[in-house]
Design a protein that fits this description.
The protein is mainly α and 273 residues long. The protein has 13 helices and 3 strands, in the order H-H-H-H-E-E-E-H-H-H-H-H-H-H-H-H. The protein has one domain. Helices cover 55% and strands 5% of the residues. InterPro entries: Mito/Outer_Membr_Metalloprot, Peptidase_M48. It holds the Pfam family Peptidase_M48. It comes from Adhaeribacter swui.
């Protein structure tokens, strides 16, 4: 299936051109029928639905609420450092807003098309340091930047249905997508690519350990060895192999692997209590 998105036939482009902007090569070298503008429209629709869903549960931390200012100051500082790495393809096109969902029992994060990122408070509190968290954020940013969410949703729902959602004409499917994103399963290629770009993004910061995501997966492995299986493993399998792959990528790139020594991560966690 991945080859479909790398190469699109002349016939496919001709048909797609009747409804979307076509199969022009994007900044990642992909040829997708679904355009960047479609990504942004779809992301806007989905993020509004996600916000509404978690707001109704009382779990969405409102960035405009002064009570949440400290938490978002910490979060945005980390996100902006990654986005300023010079390595994010759609840094200027996508919105790149990141929101916190208050659920201390969930160790997860997810991305919508167009750069809307959601992080559960349970994941923030679970991690030991800012480099690990930056590694996970880099992974989720990569899912949006490399358009994995769009590719997976297009496989799952089909082009015409996804376009109808992007245009606001399919509220039923929009709700389905919004409620399933947290558990959306990517194929092995997409997960491997997101891990790789996490290293690239963090390496570009010249601040974080570029293999920060490996520290997260190492922590997950310890939990599993102790008989506890975090929910994260249901959508992000094979942590052992991924630790090695991340470290191999860091070694190949020759990027910094020493922890940044950032001292405010505990303050970030405390701001969520």
């Amino acid at each position: 299936m991945i080859q479909f998105f790398k190469k699109c036939s002349f016939f496919g482009c001709l048909v797609a051109g009747l409804v979307v902007s076509g199969c022009a090569e994007d900044k990642n070298g992909d040829r997708l029928i679904f355009s960047i503008e479609d990504d942004m429209r779809l992301g806007a629709q989905v993020s509004q639905e996600v916000d509404s869903t978690y707001r109704a549960k009382g779990q969405l931390l409102d960035p405009a609420n002064p009570a949440n200012k400290a938490a978002y100051d910490h979060l945005n500082r980390i996100v902006n450092r990654i986005l300023s790495s010079g390595k994010v393809s759609y840094r200027d096109e996508f919105v790149w807003d990141t929101k916190i969902i208050k659920d201390d029992n969930v160790l997860n994060a997810f991305a919508t098309p167009g750069g809307h990122i959601y992080v559960f408070s349970g994941l923030i509190k679970y991690l030991d340091n800012e480099d690990q968290f930056a590694g996970v954020l880099g992974h989720e940013i990569a899912h949006a930047d490399q358009r994995h969410s769009t590719k997976q949703l297009q496989r799952q729902y089909g082009l015409s249905i996804l376009l109808s959602v992007a245009l606001g004409n399919n509220p039923g499917t929009l709700t389905q997508i919004a409620t399933s994103l947290a558990t959306l399963k990517f194929d092995r290629n997409a997960e491997t690519e997101a891990d790789k770009y996490s290293v690239v993004y963090l390496g570009g910061t010249n601040y974080y350990a570029c293999n920060g995501a490996a520290g997260f997966f190492e922590k997950i492995l310890k939990e599993e060895q102790q008989g506890r299986t975090p929910e994260f493993l249901s959508t992000h399998p094979d942590p052992g192999n991924r630790v090695q792959a991340i470290n191999n990528k860091a070694a190949a790139d020759g990027c910094k692997t020493q922890l940044s020594g950032a001292t405010t991560y505990q303050d970030f966690k405390n701001s969520l209590r």
